[in-house]
């Protein structure tokens, strides 16, 4: 009757003193339970004991398997709850509580996981009345957790289920009365953490039978903690050392420490390193069939990243093809769609604004995913359409999805029967509708139909068959869980979807590059002529038999991958308060053992590799085991470093096979090549079949004249947002539409213009026009480039603010340009064949007012508050410093749009331009500014012409001599010079950049040779 803690020379399989301990226990007891930490280690120990002739008397199992077998033999007849059932019940309990009653907790995945871990580890102690009587709740949250766990226990009792921890505690109590022969001797090896309920069970075995805990020399410090844990339970434990010698405890040093300078060279460097290790292993074994183990935190992901490069190097890659639900395409798409549908459903009910779901990037991703049965082209068309229309509501989006599904289905029916896509159904709309109706099983069944019909290459060229089978297996598991497991524990399917993240699926499909091999304790089948690289976790590598591999490479041996942090959360605090904290071996000691065993699993070289810097060039610290082994190696350490200098190899996974590379020197910034210059000016075919320049609008001409670089970026590179906006452009479009509708309705009613006496009636017309245009824009209807569509209350309030501003505009019009009357509204030049500065001119002018003498005032609305920057003075008038702007041959005013249209109206309609004005429609003080003939401005002008505009053309009182007609001609001549430069590819920045230039000038104009 004893508990022994023995420090022995430990390996992946029982050797030396550890094997003697097991053999003696079998001889003395006849039957021994050997508990291991993982299934891989269990299989390795079973094989080793069978080879040694000691397999019949030893039952090698895991703690969970041991408790399950004991409960089946000695329990009350109830079944043990599985991890999935536990998660389902916890999720259902949280969902059934009112959110206000859950405060300060919330029903989130984190809360579900935390409660499930507490139920797994501490449920019997929470139900222990005597223990809880001594424990006053420390907080409202703790009291709520206890109540939730008791509710969970009640659900288990109703379902005839038992928590394994509670079963272990019950077994421990029964063993105190009588210890069955099947549990008289237990040996524990390689446990990183022993929960309290398992310690209780082990202590009860040790009190009446024999319990031995085996520790490696690196875990010597943990012996005292384990001894104290048994002592607290009233069982005395003894600590013994049975080491073969000091040399046996010394770790095997790696043959190489390999450092990569940064992440850009990571995949290339790792592939080259693995390939080199495989070549050396083949040479050492005198065989092309060497097996190299590659240890990574996530083997499947690492294999996917390196498989193509390794294939190019002539190396086969083998990896476990398993995945969790969240990591699969099924999980990623379902989680995204479920969240999106919930927001869309809430928006349709008016609970949240449409801005919470628009522009629906989740749907575009869904259409591009193979599981939808659609294609990337449909996704792009849909994405462009919905992003360009803020007015598409929930019903319109669903209708568009249905339209795409119908169209794709019709296209598939026209394909030949032998076409691999002919039998693939399109379910993009069906799945979304099922989720809207809260029918997740139907959604998953629809996805499964698509996956089973898709060709393998739809999931990728490298491992398409594996990926397809993985997705099919995941979908079948999810459907079975939602249909069977939920029914078994009486949990609604809608609740069950919240715990799908815990599902994990693995397959045994194989391809030429990436294969699945579940038995990682055995070397992979290397029957081919190429060396084989097997990806596996550190724990799996440590569980492999010594010499199982010809070489071993450890990837990403850094502090993040092999963290020494000890997790502390609410579960940890509850365990301490319940005096049920687990006994844990510190991570550093545990990692030393795992690394040492993994290195010994290789008969050849062991290599540690890591990346030293991240993408921001910040240091990535090495793992503690790296530092320890490097320090132990001392001056003899073999260190190799590689940089990120080989750009071509870093980018090309084929290793530049069949690739010609050369170095080119880029042109200086803001300079176009001779080949690119012809494309600066866009051209089209005329009626005669000749290539002619396309029409330029006045705004484009003004933009180029102000800053060629800004024009080139905005009009040719076009880095604009892909989403329809709600900004100044859309507000300006809205104001233009309202003013056009307002003046059109006035003219239809026989009112030629706004006058002081008809302002009240005009405001009434304005209100009607405003409401009509607002309704049209809300539906996405506008003749402008973009409608002003509000998606939430804040944006609707911004539209409300526009009406008072336009009311002030109408009042201003009543006292401005009195002899003039609106004659042309939104007048288009596109079909008139008008040329300006020798180039075809297009576009629309907002408004042209004409008086009885045929004089015209060109008016351009500007929805901005400050209109003073649009002032223009006679350039022949001397400035304060004595200079005359007109003497500069390249002189051009900053704003030329209205001047360009004034000249065009002069030619197209034969009018006499008298003013080119910009009309501010925003703010508290509307105003007109720009250029006008002297007769319309100043103190001598007729009353009520252009209030506030004092300088005209010519400004004779100040020495100016340029008339308004001369201004138009001078501007046209200067613009002709600018447009000639455009035709020659000049796209340099303005010498005097404006504030807006800061948005365009930094856009990629610092170049280097590449």
UniProtKB/TrEMBL annotation:
GO biological process, one term: DNA repair
Record key words, sorted: ATP-binding, DNA damage, DNA repair, Helicase, Hydrolase, Nucleotide-binding
GO terms of molecular function: helicase activity
Record bears the keyword DNA repair: yes
InterPro entries: PDDEXK_AddAB-type (IPR038726)
PD-(D/E)XK endonuclease-like domain segment(s): 695-999
Protein's UniProt name: PD-(D/E)XK nuclease family protein
Organism: Collinsella acetigenes
């Amino acid at each position: 009757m004893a508990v022994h803690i023995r420090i022995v020379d430990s390996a992946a399989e029982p050797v030396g003193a550890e094997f003697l301990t097991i053999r003696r226990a079998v001889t003395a007891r006849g039957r021994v339970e050997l508990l291991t930490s993982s299934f891989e280690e269990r299989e390795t120990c079973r094989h080793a004991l069978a080879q040694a002739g000691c397999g019949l008397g030893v039952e090698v199992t895991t703690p969970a398997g041991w408790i399950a077998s004991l409960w089946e033999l000695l329990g009350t007849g109830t079944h043990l709850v599985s991890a999935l059932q536990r998660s389902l019940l916890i999720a259902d309990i949280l969902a059934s509580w009112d959110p206000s009653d859950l405060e300060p907790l919330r029903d989130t995945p984190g809360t579900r996981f935390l409660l499930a871990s507490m139920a797994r580890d501490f449920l019997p102690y929470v139900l222990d009345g005597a223990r809880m009587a001594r424990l006053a709740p420390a907080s409202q949250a703790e009291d709520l957790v206890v109540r939730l766990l008791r509710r969970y226990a009640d659900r288990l009792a109703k379902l005839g289920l038992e928590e394994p921890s509670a079963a272990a505690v019950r077994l421990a109590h029964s063993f105190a009365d009588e210890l069955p022969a099947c549990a008289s001797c237990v040996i524990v090896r390689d446990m990183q953490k022993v929960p309290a309920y398992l310690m209780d069970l082990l202590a009860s075995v040790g009190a009446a039978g024999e319990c031995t805990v085996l520790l490696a020399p690196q875990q010597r410090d943990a012996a005292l903690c384990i001894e104290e844990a048994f002592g607290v339970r009233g069982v005395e434990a003894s600590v013994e050392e049975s080491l073969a010698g000091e040399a046996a405890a010394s770790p095997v040093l790696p043959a190489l420490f390999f450092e990569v300078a940064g992440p850009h060279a990571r995949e290339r460097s790792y592939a080259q390193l693995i390939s080199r290790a495989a070549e050396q292993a083949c040479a050492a074994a005198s065989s092309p069939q060497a097996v190299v183990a590659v240890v990574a935190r996530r083997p499947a992901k690492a294999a996917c990243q390196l498989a193509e490069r390794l294939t190019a190097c002539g190396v086969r890659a083998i990896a476990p093809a398993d995945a969790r639900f969240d990591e699969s395409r099924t999980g990623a798409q379902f989680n995204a769609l479920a969240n999106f549908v919930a927001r869309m459903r809430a928006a349709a009910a008016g609970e949240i604004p449409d801005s919470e779901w628009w522009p629906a990037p989740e749907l575009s991703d869904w259409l591009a995913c193979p599981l939808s049965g659609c294609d990337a082209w449909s996704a792009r068309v849909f994405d462009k359409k919905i992003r360009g229309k803020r007015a598409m509501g929930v019903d319109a989006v669903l209708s568009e999805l249905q339209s795409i599904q119908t169209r794709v289905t019709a296209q598939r029916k026209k394909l030949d029967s032998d076409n691999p896509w002919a039998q693939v159904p399109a379910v993009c709309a069906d799945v979304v509708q099922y989720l809207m109706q809260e029918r997740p099983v139907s959604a998953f069944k629809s996805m499964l139909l698509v996956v089973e019909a898709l060709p393998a290459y739809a999931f990728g060229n490298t491992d398409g068959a594996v990926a397809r089978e993985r997705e099919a297996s995941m979908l079948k598991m999810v459907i079975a869980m939602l249909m069977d497991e939920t029914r078994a524990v009486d949990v609604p399917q809608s609740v069950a979807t919240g715990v799908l993240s815990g599902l994990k699926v693995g397959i045994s499909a194989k391809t030429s590059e990436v294969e699945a091999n579940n038995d990682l304790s055995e070397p992979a089948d290397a029957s081919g002529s190429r060396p084989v690289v097997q990806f596996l976790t550190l724990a799996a590598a440590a569980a492999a038999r010594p010499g199982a591999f010809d070489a071993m490479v450890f990837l990403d041996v850094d502090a993040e991958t092999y963290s020494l942090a000890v997790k502390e959360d609410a579960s940890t605090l509850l365990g301490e308060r319940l005096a049920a904290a687990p006994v844990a071996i510190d991570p550093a000691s545990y990692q030393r053992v795992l690394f040492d065993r993994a290195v010994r699993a290789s008969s050849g070289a062991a290599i540690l590799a890591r990346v030293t810097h991240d993408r921001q060039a910040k240091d990535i610290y090495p793992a503690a085991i790296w530092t320890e082994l490097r320090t132990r190696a001392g001056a003899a350490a073999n260190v190799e470093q590689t940089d990120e200098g080989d750009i071509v190899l870093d980018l090309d996974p084929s290793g530049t096979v069949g690739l010609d590379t050369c170095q080119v020197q880029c042109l200086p910034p803001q300079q176009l090549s001779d080949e690119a210059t012809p494309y600066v000016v866009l051209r089209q075919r005329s009626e005669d079949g000749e290539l002619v320049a396309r029409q330029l609008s006045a705004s484009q001409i003004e933009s180029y004249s102000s800053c060629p670089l800004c024009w080139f970026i905005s009009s040719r590179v076009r880095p604009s947002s892909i989403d329809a906006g709600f900004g100044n452009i859309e507000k300006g479009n809205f104001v233009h539409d309202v003013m056009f509708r307002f003046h059109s309705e006035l003219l239809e009613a026989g009112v030629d213009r706004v006058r002081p006496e008809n302002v009240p009636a005009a405001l009434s017309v304005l209100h009607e026009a405003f409401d009509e245009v607002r309704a049209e824009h809300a539906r996405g209807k506008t003749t402008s480039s973009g409608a002003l569509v509000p998606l939430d209350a804040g944006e609707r309030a911004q539209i409300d603010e526009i009406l008072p501003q336009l009311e002030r505009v109408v009042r201003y019009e009543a006292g401005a340009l009195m002899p003039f009357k609106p004659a042309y509204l939104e007048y288009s030049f596109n079909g008139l064949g008008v040329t300006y500065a020798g180039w075809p001119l297009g576009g629309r002018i907002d408004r042209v007012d004409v008086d009885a003498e045929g004089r015209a005032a060109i008016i351009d609305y500007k929805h901005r508050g400050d209109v003073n920057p649009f002032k223009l003075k006679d350039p022949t008038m001397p400035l304060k410093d004595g200079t005359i702007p007109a003497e500069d041959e390249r002189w051009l005013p900053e704003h030329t749009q209205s001047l360009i249209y004034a000249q065009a109206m002069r030619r197209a309609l034969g009018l006499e331009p008298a003013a080119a004005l910009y009309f501010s429609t925003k703010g508290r003080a509307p105003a007109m500014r720009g250029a006008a003939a002297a007769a319309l401005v100043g103190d001598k002008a007729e009353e009520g012409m252009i209030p506030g505009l004092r300088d005209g053309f010519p400004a004779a009182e100040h020495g100016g001599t340029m008339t308004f007609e001369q201004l138009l001609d001078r501007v046209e001549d200067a613009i002709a010079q600018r447009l000639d430069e455009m035709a020659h590819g000049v796209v340099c920045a303005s010498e005097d950049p404006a504030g807006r230039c800061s948005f365009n000038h930094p856009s990629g104009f610092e170049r280097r040779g590449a």
